[in-house]
């Protein structure tokens, strides 16, 4: 994991007098599972939108997959996958129609789409659900399909924004197995979450508090540094520290 695929330097986003993302700097390496953690409202989604080329930074620098997020946003979009908390699927389309739609958006040709669709449905055990409307699938199945669609075109990086929100712990664990499989294929996984236990599944994690990155390291090193039993304990210590600073 020596190749840098995401790099930021003092990346900042303001809305009027409010600073949502405050001078964040970090690097992410190829094939890494990088956790971007923080409470709701910490600035995670705003930062991710800048990295995906969906929002212009106010100041600072950033590159994703070798492309400048200011000047080459379209190139960035061509080299990434994206899945939001809402699963990024069209509920009134069938399973195979969703796959074809997004594969076409990602620039794949008909032959590639047809061949890979059959393979994907078999891998997921969805062959009998090929013609099922997505809205009729259980939540966990929608989640698996949405993730699989987001990496269908084998992007260099996939951005997952709170992907396991609202699902049970068992389904969350199954979803993380899909993440491991993607990372094993060399796809870098950048995942935001407010579930601190999921930090344990990441190679490295950053923890955002009020728009700033207050800690960044492996889960093991962070727990050692903060003399904590869990990543939840690490986060609570950082949150208390931020509250005292604000006072």
UniProtKB/TrEMBL annotation:
Keywords: ATP-binding, Nucleotide-binding
Gene3D superfamilies membership: P-loop containing nucleotide triphosphate hydrolases (3.40.50.300)
Keyword Secreted (UniProt): no
Molecular function GO labels: ATP binding; ATP hydrolysis activity
Residues in ABC transporter domain copies: 6-235
Pfam families documented for this protein: ABC_tran
UniProt KW Nucleotide-binding keyword: yes
Entry-linked SUPFAM superfamilies: P-loop containing nucleoside triphosphate hydrolases
Name under which the protein is recorded: ABC-type multidrug transport system ATPase subunit
């Amino acid at each position: 994991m020596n190749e840098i695929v995401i790099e930021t330097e003092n990346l900042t986003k303001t809305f009027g007098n409010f600073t949502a993302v405050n001078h964040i700097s970090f690097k992410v390496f190829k094939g890494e599972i990088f956790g971007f953690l923080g409470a709701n409202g910490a600035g995670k989604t705003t930062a991710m939108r800048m990295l995906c080329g969906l929002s212009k930074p106010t100041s600072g620098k950033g590159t994703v997959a070798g492309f400048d997020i200011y000047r080459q946003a379209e190139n960035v979009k061509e080299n990434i996958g994206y899945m939001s908390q809402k699963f990024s699927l069209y509920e009134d389309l069938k399973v195979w129609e969703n796959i074809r739609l997004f594969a076409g958006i990602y620039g794949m040709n008909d032959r590639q789409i047809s061949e890979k669709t059959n393979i994907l449905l078999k891998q997921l055990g969805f062959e009998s659900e090929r013609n099922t409307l997505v809205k009729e699938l259980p939540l966990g199945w929608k989640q698996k399909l949405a993730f699989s669609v987001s990496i269908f075109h084998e992007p260099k990086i996939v951005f997952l924004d709170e992907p396991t929100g609202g699902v049970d712990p068992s389904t969350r664990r199954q979803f993380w197995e899909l993440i491991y499989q993607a990372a094993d294929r060399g796809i870098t996984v950048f995942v935001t979450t407010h579930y601190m236990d999921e930090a344990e599944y990441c190679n490295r994690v950053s923890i955002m508090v009020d728009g700033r990155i207050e800690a960044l390291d492996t889960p093991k090193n962070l727990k050692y540094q903060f003399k904590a039993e869990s990543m939840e304990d690490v986060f609570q210590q950082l949150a208390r520290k931020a509250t005292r600073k604000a006072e």
